[in-house]
Amino acid sequence: MPTESRVSKYLTARSIWVWLPPCVFLILAGVVLVTGLNKDLFFLINQTSQITGDMFWAFLTFLSDGLVVFVILFPLIYRKPRLIWTVLVAAVLLTLFGQAVKHISRIPRPPRVLSSESFHLIGPDWGYNSFPSGHASMIFSLAGVFSLTVKRNWLRLLLIGLASVIAAARIVVGVHWPVDVLAGAALGWFSIWIGLEISERTAWAWKGIGQKILGAVFLVLCVALFFADHTGYEDIMGFQRTIAVLSLVIGGHEYARVYGWKGLFVKAPPTSVND
Known about the structure:
Helix 6 packs across helix 13 (237-258) and helix 7 runs antiparallel to helix 9. Residues 3-8 and 268-275 have low confidence and may be disordered. This protein has 13 helices and no strands. 67% of the residues lie in helices and 0% in strands.
């Protein structure tokens, strides 16, 4: 069983990487609201698909789906179970807080207030409750959990950049305002910090029997992703099932190691000449 000591040494609250990214996102959200640029930025970003096509952005927004994020993490079940538990805790917090804010604010999504001719919609419109973006929260929780547990600043910047592009896909597909995405990004990052604090105090959930239960749950999620069509993007079902199968195979291999199996790629010790 690999040690989790390296993972436990995540950044302290005094680190600039803990508070600066979410603060920047919140400041940008405030600027967008105060200057009245929310709608103008939406139209500007939404036009991006005219250059790249729809499929690219449908795939990116698919990557920020909560179920997809969990499935992508499954191969880490043996070596980094705490990271998986941290993201799961963060997802629960995001769901509770995010849904509460959505139902209180009741801010309509772009398709509900804009004419269909004025912007480009890719996939379903998802109705009301736009603020904040749950997809942006999930992808930034994924970027955050790795950013707060690695030592290389260039890797942190790369993760934030990738997460920003994926989160922006929610605007390109036409279902979120820029301020929704910025607020969601901040929430996702904050939730991971809280998740890391909680996971440090709940080692029972990702060690021993807890790790086995966690792996079983994520194994089921891989199967669910293979059959489910809850994203509304039928054109990327092939990608969805490919990710489900890859995570199921690789993650299943790693999950078996939790039970003591050495794995397919572990070399057997050399036979002694005296045997």
